[in-house]
Amino acid sequence: MIHQDLQAALNSQINQEFCAAYNYLGMATYFDAQNLDGFASWMQMQHNEEQAHAMKLLRYLQDRGGQVKLESIGSPRSEFGSPLDIFKLSLEQEQKNTASINDLYELATRLNDHATKSHLQWFIDEQVEEEKSVEDIIALLTRIGDDTAGLLYLDDKLGARQAEQVPV
């Protein structure tokens, strides 16, 4: 049976992952309305990944005999500024997720829960990749500035992204 403090923290992380997924869906629909299909597709893939992350944690908690407690999720934003502003929000969200996962890992360490530490290592590695991909896009958007051709090129490039399978 999993420790109650860890169960509560994992439930909180599950909620955070679902919230992140919903926020990415809001960003995707915004980009779709702006006819930036590549950006929309990229954000939709982020939505799918965050949902998969939540389910990976949910199944783990159940496998350890824990009780899943799903919380309500607020509405995502529907209005944004520039693509650069949206990706800065995305990076903030990913950094918040990273900090939360690191806190979970520290809690598992204090509780001497090696199984949870092992499970969370995948998330720690994943967050490095998540933050880097958003940081790279921010760097490109900064370089592009107000250049419409550059924005459309990046839209095309982001639309070519292939979905990754999240191991369960």
Structure, described:
The structure is a single chain. The chain has one domain (4-159): Ferritin (Up-down Bundle). Helix content is 76%, strand content 0%. It has 5 helices and no strands. It has helices at 4-33, 37-63, 83-110, 114-144, 148-159. Helix 1 (4-33) packs antiparallel against helix 2 and helix 1 (4-33) runs antiparallel to helix 3. The longest helix is centred in the C-terminal third of the chain and has 31 residues, at 114-144. The protein is elongated, with a radius of gyration of 17 Å. The chain starts with a helix and ends in a 9-residue tail after the last helix.
**Unreliable parts:** none
Report the major sheet.
none
**Overall pLDDT score:** 95
CATH fold type: Ferritin
| CATH architecture title | Up-down Bundle
**Elements, N to C (H/E):** HHHHH
Distance between the termini: 20 Å
Proportion of beta-strand residues: under 5%
The gross shape turns out to be elongated
Structural class: mainly alpha
Question: Would you summarize the structure shown here?
Answer:
The protein is built from 5 helices and no strands.
List keywords for this structure.
single chain; 168 residues; mainly alpha; Ferritin; 5 helices; 76% helix; elongated
Topology:
Blueprint: H1 4-33, H2 37-63, H3 83-110, H4 114-144, H5 148-159
Helix pairs in contact: 1-2, 1-3, 2-5, 3-4
